[in-house]
Design a protein that fits this description.
By secondary structure, this protein is α/β, with parallel strands linked by helices. Helices cover 34% and strands 12% of the residues. Helix 1 crosses helix 3, helix 3 crosses helix 9 and helix 5 runs parallel beside helix 6.
């Protein structure tokens, strides 16, 4: 993992170990703040599960704060995949926030683009843009809109959120990287409600047919879509058997067990000749008791008391705001 890069920094000017990080003056696409300071990245060893759990708390705190009081936001589906996204950005993927277009970076695509808040939180914590930008999420002129936008947000690889399309894009990127002779991996998060889209299964067939073995899909299997439980709205079970029938290597994990997430991602590295899917069993709204397994928080709103309670839950995380 020596090629992996990520910043060990909390809010303010101190990193976890108390050292003062270096900064680069960098104008990023769409920014209205020339000369914004972006953290310089240095190589580090693989982050352990305990530290990642603390970072995931901070990611969830950012998600809560981006939603705010009395405004609708995708709290549930962002929190359900927060542990997986944390493991990818802060331990598994090779990437460099000071050089988002680094050719040998690993790629991350959030096919369930309505959960963009979790990606924005991770990108900000990594140093792709200042954390103050999170306060502007979904505002007119912000670099952080309701769905990922590659032209506006540093670190975003594709415009996603039209459900079913992200996996096809990921397949194309994985194929292109192979043609270019690069060893980069492509990670794609899809939702279980999204499996009702036929394009997902077309892409699944293509990935298997072309043996895209540097493609790793993580399925956020939280059991709820916008209008209710998956099994009642559009039951796509049995999932492991279906993906195996399409030629994929399948693993199943608890999507909130950081050690299990890391092990599954490492195991995927050793599987050759076929694409991989990790079915992560998750909880919608994970970590926030009033939102857990509640369909109304798919795109819900918090009152002031709920907002304060959620912030207090994560206030002891890696970053204190």
């Amino acid at each position: 993992m020596g090629a992996h890069r990520w910043p060990a920094a909390s809010s303010g000017d101190e990193s976890i170990d108390g050292s003062v990080p270096n900064y680069l003056n960098n104008n990023f696409p769409g920014s209205s703040r020339p000369g914004t300071k972006i953290m310089k990245i240095t190589a580090t060893e693989k982050t352990d599960a305990k530290e990642l759990e603390l970072i995931a708390r901070t990611v969830r705190l950012h998600i809560v704060q981006m939603v705010g009081v009395g405004q609708r936001g995708h709290l549930g589906g962002s929190c359900s995949i927060a542990d997986v996204v944390t493991a990818l950005y802060f331990s598994k993927m090779r990437h460099d926030p000071s050089n988002p277009s680094w050719p040998d970076r690993d790629r991350f695509l959030l096919s369930k683009g309505h959960a963009a808040l979790v990606q924005y939180a991770a990108l900000a914590e990594c140093g792709y843009f200042p954390k103050d930008e999170l306060k502007t999420t979904k505002r007119f002129g912000s670099i952080l809109q309701g769905h990922p936008d590659l032209k506006s947000t540093p670190g975003v690889e594709a415009n996603t959120g039209s459900l079913g399309q992200g996996l096809s894009i990921a397949c194309g990127i994985a194929a292109g990287l192979r043609i270019d002779g690069r060893s980069s991996r492509v990670y794609c998060v899809i939702g279980d409600g999204e499996l009702a889209e036929g394009q997902i299964w077309e892409a699944a067939m293509a990935a298997s047919a072309f043996k895209l073995d540097r493609l790793v899909v993580i399925l956020d299997h939280n059991g709820l879509q916008a209008m209710g439980p998956i099994v009642q709205r559009f039951n796509t079970s049995p999932l492991p058997e279906k993906w195996r029938a399409f030629g994929w290597h399948v693993s199943e994990i608890n999507g909130h067990d950081m050690a299990a997430i890391l092990n599954a991602l490492d195991e995927a590295d050793g599987i050759k000749g076929q694409p991989k899917i990790i079915i992560a069993r998750t909880i919608k709204g994970a970590g926030i008791p009033f939102a857990e397994n509640r369909v109304e928080f798919h795109n819900g709103l918090m009152d002031a008391a709920q907002y304060e309670a959620a912030c207090e839950l994560f206030g002891s995380g890696r970053t204190k705001n």
